Each structure stands twice: as structure tokens, then as C-alpha cells.
Amino acid sequence: MSTQVSYTPTLPQSNAGCSGLLSMLTEPSPQLIHSALSKIYSLVSTHWHELSPHISLIEKLSEPWNESGIQLPQNTRNIAIAIASRVYYFLEDRKESLRLALSLLGTEYFDVVKDKSDYVEGLVWEAIGSYIAKTKGVDGVSAQDPSTDTEMDTAADTEAGNEIGTETELEKKHSNLTTKNIGLVVEQMFERCYSSSSFAHAMGIALEASRLDKVTEVLAKCSISSSSLPSLLNYSLQVLSSKITTTRTFRQAAVKIVTSYYEELPPADYDFTSLMKGYQILNQPGDVGKMLVTLLSSPSSSLDNELLAFQLSFDLVDTGDQTFIDLVTKAFEAAMALVAFENISEKAHNQCLSVLKGGFTGQLELAFLYKNSDVDPLIMKNLKKALEQKSTRPSSLLHSMSIHAHSFLTAGTTNDTFLRENLEYLKKASNWAQFSATASFGVVHCGHVGEAMTLLEPYLPAEGTVIPPTSGFAEGGALYALGLIHAKSTLSTDSRTTSTTYLREQLRNSMANEMLSHGAALGIGLSAMGTKDASIFNELKDLLFTDSAVAGEAAGIAMGMVMVGDGASPENENNINEMLNYAKDTKHEKIIRGIAMGISLMYYGQEEQADGQIASLSKDRDPILRYGAMYTIALAYCGTGSNKAIRQLLHVAVSDVSNDVRMASIIGIAFVMFKTPERVPNLVRLLLESFNPHVRYASCMAVGIALSGTGNQDAIEVLEPMLDDLTDYVKQGALLGLSMVMMQQPETKQVKKFREKLSSVVTEKHHTPLTKMGAILGTGLIDAGGRNVSLTMQSRAGFAKMRSAVGLALFAQHWYWHPMIHMLNLSFTPSYVCGLNRNFEFPKGFEVQCTSPPSSFAYPKRLTEKKEVEKKRITTVTLSTSAKTKAKNARKKAEEGDDSAMDVDKNKPPPTSTPTSPTNTTSPASPVAAEKKKKFSEAKNFRVPNPSRVTSRQTALCEFDLNQRYRPVLTGAVVSGIMVLTDSTPEVEEDVVAVTAPALQTDEEPLPGAFIWTPAPTPTSSASASASA
Questions:
Q1: In which order are the strands placed within the sheet that holds 942-944?
Q2: pLDDT in tens, 301-345
Q3: Rounded to two decimals, what is the model's pTM?
Q4: What pLDDT is attached to residue 66?
């Protein structure tokens, strides 16, 4: 869409003025007035500043009768209106200028269709902006008919806060700026777009104004008079999938119209990627499943269509919407049953299923994170050493945070070497710290589903063993770890089902032990997230009703994870009412908080359908339920950029009496605006100066969440001063926020300085434990996942990633319960580009061109261990004056007959001849030294091998080389994630690498090889052999 035209009027270039012409306007002759106005009209663009003091006189001439009682013709009055409108325009009063210009619409003085001057363009955009503001003030799908302007204007005024019946003089003056009158300008703008074939421009206006009738009209006009319908459909779906500025109801109705036009296109013009995006918005998994089958069974260009089906499957899994993916898989299998297998390769069918439900994407991620891990072992070694110093007071909090930092550093890499080599350090954890330490194995081995039970076997509850109610921390942590291992949507459906079944059995057997039931409930919520299984929900509800504070909190959160995104359905209405009633009956704050977060998860992505529940929770007397209302807003409007949601959150941030509620409202801003993160620093800049430290802490976290991995300078500038805040937990928030922002950033001076800051905070004595907690967690965050993962809530296709949003929302609960820190693992997304051939192998011949120096996105340098230098005894230096004095005394004694004094000169080494020429005081530099002095010249671009890390900032600088052997099946896709490749020379043998899962690391030595015993020859046989010889 175009932006508003800004125009700076020019000052007069001559000394001639309009004073004489202005005096003629008071003459009694209509002809003189007309002549003067005509001349003024030609000079208004340069002499508007002279006319502005007389604007009231000119406006009076627009009336049929002037003050002298002379009747003026219509043309004269139109010229007066045109002059007054232009003067107001140059005075930047666009609203008043538009009010006058509306009466000239269709005349030569305000012709929207033909006139493209700055004045007309400026008023057109003013009219469109006003029209959009008025139409969006109305509840419902859209305004189909501008004749409903009375209701629309009333609703718009109410939305703006104006009371009906209290019109001011200015409002009366602008009474003609109704939706109907402004709509006439918009209608003419549509006509101008049609005449110039600017259909994308017209579609943008229709979508912004929420006009379904105009969406249909634009598509109909384009299909008749232009061949650019496919590109217009792509543009429409791109705008609608962004969720910006439109309601969910209107968006779904508009997408339904767009997809109906898509389906009428010939197959050659199909854009399957955009069509699948439309089906996702409409929640039509059946159509996606049929589309995949259509591609696999297509007779023309079958190979490319197969590869496209694979690519669409990978993109679908990348969105993380588990419910939608499961329904697509079922629809795909049902559609396959109706198609003859002669037309579809069985191998291609199995490959599609391996992506959709077989967990192949998870295998790729695990293999990449394992092989490309750049974990620096010295980070944890130095951290452990700093915490074990005698000068450092022992702290269970900091010890526990170091285990969390290790889980961040090695998330998904299966690298638990530090834990295995430092078991005594690990054993220092007790009670709930032991629970978290055991659960950290789930973060380290996330996705390693094949070895999950083997890995956790020493910690899981033994079969037939009864664990006392006062113990079971390690066993409960192991159940939580099992859920964390199976938490990602990219994993096998069967493995997640198996783990859920096991955890449900453990939950039934552990109702009396809150440690076990807490871990089992969280594990079930993670492995069964988004399944909407009523039986699992009821089992968790039974745990909730036991009124155990710790177990009940986990049950409430797990219920929300199981039913995530399904809060507005009629089936869930009774469930939510039961949860709310129990929250008001129980006295445990932990249970109330678990229920509040569970309800907020249920309303994920529901937008305006959650407004009723939000209003009810926001008015509750219990601050914890109001706290839940803020997270309900954040998750319901996640990624929409909704002005209404932001306005609600900001209002609560400065008005609520509870600090917790204010914190939640500010953090919620990051969720709503994560698609336009650059706006967040300016939005919370004033909040960072608040007197309330909780508000400052939440503002730091909001900036970090919204701008994670971007290295945004505005974010760094607003967070760095908070490192010196007087409150310790505000400094903690600043350290965490900056660590998120600086994830995967090159080692610049700024980043290096911050890394040193993290290290110094841990080692220095004067920092409080809460500040050190932020530094320790920040140390793990900034290098998370072996420096190969990022925090992101957006998929490659532009959709909000459900699991990432859930993980970040639950991570924010670590303020109250430290085991929630592990939930951040749900938001870790590998930053890589991975090319696959049709056999799902890595071709070595595929590379990506990056138009930046290699150092711009290189891994940070690893730490170097400081070597202790042995202290050597310093030899005493003899001064030259002392030597001369000693020699002089020796000569005196020699003259007196003492021969022993001559021994001084005997031991003196012979003098060496040294050059005295000043030109020879420095030796010529060697060739090696001269080479070092040369300025290092780095390449301006480089090629990225397959697979490799590609950060979010790097994707904008990467492009495909379409001249190489392997090319992506979607050449216009973003250079990120999994790419299915076409092979231009399939007859040539390929150099490929297979996808392999990492082996489980153990402390045992490998088994010896097969033992083959060969008997030694007997003496008898040896003697007979020599005899025969």
C-alpha cells in the first residue's frame, strides 16, 4: 500500500502579492469578484501565507449571498471553496481542507480520477484514513453499504471516547465528514485504480477498510480486465496472513473469497503455497490433505510436484499447530485410500507421512544441533569455578541456576558431558532444585526420543516401588524431563503418544505424591499439547480437585496446554466455568495461578472471541485472575498488532494496583507486537523510567522477548542503562533481555563487552543473588543450543508458532516457580538452512550465496584457559655507577699491592662491538612481521555449505545460486529452514550425506570385539613338521 503524500508548499518567488486582489473581493460587482478569485486561485500554491489571514473572507464567498446581498454564481463560489481548501491544506489542517473539498468532488477543482497533484493525493489519503477509522469502529464483519453511515459514525465516535449528544462547534462544522460522504472519495479512488489496473492498490484499500464487497469487486474486475489475477491473489493472502489490522472474522471471510478464486484458476497458474496458507487460515485441514494427494498423483511434471508436496509438508510442520497437522495427516491418509496407487509412488507416500507424523523434521533438527554444536566447555567450567570460590557464599539458588544455564547452552545437542563429569556438583541440588536438575536432562536431550527411556531409566520411578510422600524429587523431575524430550511438534506422533500413555499411568499411581504428580502433569501437558483429548483433560482435572497446591498448579497449566487454542469452542465452555469456580473456592494461590494460566492458553489465537472472557477476568477482585486476563490478551491477540489489545495492556500497566498484574500486561505487549518488534522499544521507553521497579523489570523482559536475536540497537540502548538500576531484579531483567537481543550476534565490541559484564557479575562479591541469577541465565541464553538456536514466535510462512508462544508465556512464570525456566525450550528454533534431495539426503553440491563478509555471522571465539606462569626469581641489577666505583676501588687496592682486587676484571666478559650508527639501531623487519602488519582483507561474500547455521539477520543477505546443480523447488522462498531441492542432472551420481541420529553418550567403555582363539602348535606336531622338512 502507498504511504501518505507529504507536501511542503513553496514560498513566493517574486515580490508581487495578493493584497490588491484581496481588496477586490469586497467589491459589489460579481464579475470583479470572479476575476479576482480566478487570479488568486492561480497564485494560491505560492501565496497561501498571504491568504491565510483572510481565510474567513474567502469562505464567506462560498455562500450563495455575500454580506452586500449580492448573489454569486456557482462557479465563483466553487473557486472560493477551492482556494479556502488549498489554504487549509498548506496550513496542514487536512481535515478542514477535506471538509471543503467534498463539496467540489467530481469538478475540475477536486477530480480524484484524473488529477494526481500533491493536493488531491494528500486529501485522498486523508479521506481513506478517515474512512478506515470509521469503518473499524463498528463491530461485525464489515460495512457492505456506505449508506449505513449514521450507525458507523456513532460507533466510531463512541470508540474514540466522544459522548453522544455533546457536539462541539468543531464537530458541527465537520458534520459533512460522514462515512457516506468520505466513502464517495474512496469510491472514486477505486475507479481510478481500476482504470490504471492498480488492482493491488485497490485490494489494499478494501482490506484496510474491511469491505468484503470491495474485495469481491476488485477480484472480479481483475479477472476480467487483467492477467495478473494470480499475483493479486498471492498479495491478498500475504496481507491477510499477517493478521495486522484486521479482525479474525473479517479475515476468514476475505480468505474464503480469495481461495474460491484460486480454485477456479487453471492448474498451471496454481500457487500451492499460497493456497495452503489460505486453507490454514480457514482451518480446513481436509483441503490441505487433498491438495497433497493431488500433487503426488499429478501426471505432468510428477517429480517436481512430488518435491513440492514434500516442501509443503515441511512448511506445515514448521508452523507448530499440532492439531491442524494431525487433522491434515488423517485427511491425507483418507484421500490416499481413494486414489489408485498406480498413480502415486509408494515411496513418495511414505516420505510425506514421515514428515507429517513420522518425526523426520525432528530428526533433521537433532542431527544438525548435534553435529554443528559449538558449545564452549570453558563457559560452564568457569561458571562452576566462580560459584565454588571460597570468597563466594554458597547459594542453592545460584547452583540451581547454573544447571539451568547448562541446559540452555546444550539444549537439543545431547551434549551432557559436563553433568556426567561433575556428578558430585550435580548432587549438591536438593529438594525442588533436584527436581529441576533432573528435568534439565529433558532440555539437553530434547528430540532424542529414541533413547529417552534409556537415558532417564536411572531416575524414573521403579515399577512396584512405593515412593514416600516426602521424597520423589528426582523421579518427578524425570517425568517432567520425559515431557520436555517429547515437547516439539516436529517429533514422531507415535513416540509422543507412547510417552503420554506412560506419563498418564504414572499420574494415576502418584496422586498421593505431589512431586511425582507435579512432574507427571507437566510432562503430560508437554507431550499431549494441542491434542484436545477430553480423557486426558478429565484426569488432570481430578488432580486439580485434590487441592494440592504444587500438583494443582501443574494440573491447571497442563489442562491449558492440552486444550490450547480451543477456549472459544462450545465444548470447552463448561470446562472453563468449572476451572473458574474452583479458582474462587480454593485458598491456594498456586492453584489459582495455574488455572489463570491454563485459561489463557486455551484462548490462544482466538482474538475477538476471547473478549468476553477477558472482560470478565479483568474485572475480578482477585489480582491473580486479573493477571491471567493479561496473558489471555497476550495469547489471544498474539502477533496481531491489535491496537485495541495494546491499548488495554497499556491502560492496565499504569492503573492496576497489583504489581504482578502490571508486569503481566507489559510482557503481554511483546506477544501482541512480535511481528513489528521495532516498535516495542519506543513504546516501553517511558515505562522503563517508571518509579515502580516491577514495571521496569517487565519492560526489560518485553524488549528482550520481542527483539530476541535481532541485535537491534534501539533495544540495546534502552536496556543498557538498566544494568545500573538500583533494584537487583531490574538488573536481572536487563541482563536477561540483553542476552535475548544479542543471541547469535557476531563478536563486536558491544557484544564482547556484554559477555564480559555477564562474567564479572557472577564473580564480583557486591552483586546480590537475584542479579547473579540473571547473569547466570543470560550466560546460557546468549549461547543457547550450541549457538545454533534462536527465540522466535514466527514460522517461515509468517504464522505465529503456537509452541513458541506457549513456551515464552510459561517461562515468564519462573518469577514464581523456578522449574518453569525449562519451558523456554519450547521456543528454541534451530537457525539453519538445510537442503534435501528427493531421497531426503544432504547433497554436498548445494550451497547458498551470502553477500556479506564471513566474520559478520561467524561463531564467537571460544574462551581460552589462562595458564599459570611460574614466578621466577628476579636477578639483582647492578647499576653502571656501582660498577665504576667498584672498579676504581679495585685499582686503588692493586696500586697498594693487593692482587686480590684484580679478580674483578678477570671474570668480566670481553666487550662486544655494537653498531653506533643510528641507522642500524633497529634490525630490518622480517617478511613474516611485514605480512602481519598488512591490513587483513576479508572476502566481501562467501558460500554457505549444506547444512549450516543461518541466523535471522543473515537470511536477508542470502540468496540462491540458480546456476548450480541443486535448486530449491520454491525459488522465491526465504533462505531459512528445510529446502527440498530439484536436481538438474539426475543422471550424474550424487555426493550425499545421510541423516543420522546421535548415539547415546554413556560412561561405560565400548564392548570388546569378537574373541577368536587360535590354539598353539604342540611340540609333537612341531617335531614331525621339521622331520618332514
A1: 942-944, 848-850, 958-960
A2: 456 888 999 999 999 998 888 889 999 999 998 888 877 656 677
A3: 0.83
A4: 64
DSSP classification of residue 948: E
Is 275:236 a contact under the CB 8 Å cutoff? no
- Residues facing residue 993 across a β-bridge: 842
Q: Which residue has the cell 655494537?
A: 914
pLDDT digits (tens, 9 = 90+) for 178-217: 777 788 888 888 888 888 888 889 998 888 888 888 999 9
Calpha distance 799→281 (Å, rounded): 9
Cell numbers given for 1003: 560412561
> Distance between CA atoms of 181 and 200, rounded to whole angstroms?
24
Q: Positive or negative CA dihedral for 235, 238, 241, 245?
A: negative
Give the orientation angle of helix 570-585 with respect to helix 534-544, to 10 degrees: 10
Q: Pick from 581, 859, 832: which is nearest to 745 by CA?
A: 859
What torsion do the CA atoms of 638, 640, 646, 652 make, to the nearest 10 degrees? -20
CA distances from 209 to 193, 218, 247, 667, 937 (A): 16, 13, 11, 30, 53
Cα–Cα distances in Å, from 28 out to 54, 69, 71, 805? Answer: 18, 9, 10, 73
CA nearest to 386, candidates 776, 777, 724: 776
Alpha-carbon span 896 to 17, nearest angstrom = 117
Could you tell me the three cell numbers for 726? 538500583
Q: How many CB atoms lie within 10 A of CB 840?
A: 18
The CA distances from residue 578 to 514, 531, 532, 611, 881, in Å, are: 22, 20, 17, 19, 98
Provide the grid cell at 42: 492561480
* C-beta atoms surrounding 958 within 10 Å: 19
